[in-house]
């Protein structure tokens, strides 16, 4: 893809971006406010708890800019094979972006007839403001930090899914986000499920070059109304020189169920805040995370399970393996508000450190203000067990085969929780690609 | 040609602590040997040394299989050469299904020259064989889908080890207390299964404290280990005697070995406390 011009992340770039968009005034107002805040904010400081383990001194925003592109510039045939979650899946609709620019959007007619909306967020903000405006930025805080504010000001393209009351989307929907080498993606994903609605959304992020550079400054908002049921899968395989800063949040109401699976394999540096707010009684969230790093990758995930209503259940499991000189940081929190009695919260992070130079930071946390709750948390960090290897070798496995098997088995517990076959297979394959021949 | 596993003047240390002090033992294919002895005498050490556990250093002596130097082989090469051990406490490998583990193991052992990454035994063929073996051992088919030894009861672990013995069909097998932790019915079943799979079909070295496992596997030889040495060898009547009367006679008859045994036990207890 040829990139002739870009909008820089400065005042001139911002004005140029606004001039190139035809979007409703309320959205422009949101952007302006966010831009002002971004300008006024400093970069996160190292001593701030969220950034104490994540060094962003090498990150230079000036190296990146939003592409000024027409859809015709984007070549789809090249990017299609990058998608892994769609293998053998009958999809109900899909959205493709390249460097944040929407190159393809489709939704099956029967779903559209039921009132399902799935497509470009900027276009739908224009044509369906009554669906977008009440929810946009309700599960996202543009003032979280400078990255969040910049995202809100400069978000491009983006995807919007709306499922009306009681409608069941029986085929998965797919979002494919592609970054070209050196590209920038600031897309915003907004998902709204009305009462009793059901949907499965498969979202994967890839770079055209596995070693590619780039910047992703993103946000995901999942808004669930009472009794709705969402399965959301996010496979992150950005190129290994890509920066990935994201705010990801679900707000789930009474009797909702959310299964959120994250696989974080790519990027050079990731700093992600992932949170689930349980705001209505009887809501249930399950979060599954896989991280597998290599080289000098640094992936930092800060997670929150925030219980704001009584009798909710949150179940959280992240498993991570680190190779070479890579490092993962997981800092988790279960927060229980005074009103959230009968909370059942679970939080666990297991790490398998595969090299002497790799590192895993695992920091679970509880903040409980109600007195009738059950919250458990755990964290383990270990190496591959020599006794396991010896046992397997006594059964004819070479050392390499044994290690490979043990590492794959380590992640199996996550796969066992995933209820979508294509996702299980894609994750299995992604991990198999990553597993080395360990000596 | 009859296969022979030959252990000569074997000395084994763990760390700098000598455990085995000159063990001589010849197993011919088709023979069953019982290895008995009080705790701390070195029975499991012999098994682990035969398999090549990296923590067990052979300081002198030799182990050969049909004249080939076993000590030169890595543990997986020993397995592929036809040596097996049923572990007293097998390791759990979470996330790895018994069936997948066994398919890979069986392929490697049956095709000793297989290179990493080469094809495994076809799934259908393997499943059929596994199902037959499991039915034969009266094991629930659910077992194959469970993770290797993960959350298994003591009895289930021992049964899983016997299943592996059945699938891998080694030339020589060391069974390390495959009866411990089992109730009387389970021991009888284990004894029958082992007889069915291995008695007179392999060279068996059965490490046990009791004679129940030997019921269906009458030993051609019974060896008594004390203080890291085989102090006495007899027939199956020796196993019966030790089961009924314990090791008092042996301890009195070999005071030097008994002193070493006590010393090792005391050191073990000390380490356990520290």
Q: Can you put this structure into words, describing what you see?
A:
- The complex is a heterodimer of chains A (439) and B (274).
- Chain A is of the alpha/beta class and 439 residues long.
- Chain A has 2 domains: 378 residues, no CATH class; 56 residues, no CATH class.
- Chain A is 21% helix and 39% strand.
- Chain A contains 10 helices and 23 strands.
- The relative contact order of chain A is 0.10.
- The mean pLDDT of chain A is 93.
- Chain B has 274 residues and is α/β, with parallel strands linked by helices.
- Chain B has a domain of 189 residues: Rossmann fold.
- Chain B has 9 helices and 12 strands.
- A 6-stranded mixed beta sheet of chain B has the order 6-9-10-3-11-12, with helices on both faces.
- In chain B, strand 9, helix 6 and strand 10 form a beta-alpha-beta unit.
- The interface between A and B is medium-sized, with 25 and 28 residues.
Blueprint of the fold:
The complex is a heterodimer of chains A (439) and B (274).
Chain A: E1 6-8, H1 11-20, H2 25-40, E2 65-67, H3 76-79, E3 93-98, E4 101-107, H4 109-113, E5 117-120, H5 121-127, H6 129-132, H7 146-154, E6 159-163, E7 173-179, E8 183-185, E9 188-193, E10 198-207, E11 213-224, E12 229-237, E13 241-252, E14 257-264, E15 269-278, E16 284-293, E17 298-307, E18 313-322, E19 327-336, E20 344-353, E21 359-363, E22 366-368, E23 374-382, H8 386-393, H9 399-415, H10 421-434
Parallel strand pairs in A: 3-7, 6-9, 7-10, 8-11, 9-11, 10-12, 11-13, 12-14, 13-15, 14-16, 15-17, 16-18, 17-19, 18-20, 19-21, 19-22, 20-23
Antiparallel strand pairs in A: 1-2, 3-4, 5-6
Chain B: E1 4-14, E2 17-28, E3 32-36, H1 43-51, E4 56-65, E5 68-69, H2 75-81, E6 83-86, E7 93-97, H3 98-110, H4 123-136, E8 147-148, H5 154-168, E9 172-176, H6 184-197, E10 203-207, E11 221-226, E12 229-234, H7 236-245, H8 248-253, H9 255-273
Parallel strand pairs in B: 3-10, 3-11, 6-9, 9-10
Antiparallel strand pairs in B: 1-2, 1-4, 4-5, 7-8, 11-12
Helix pairs in contact in B: 5-6
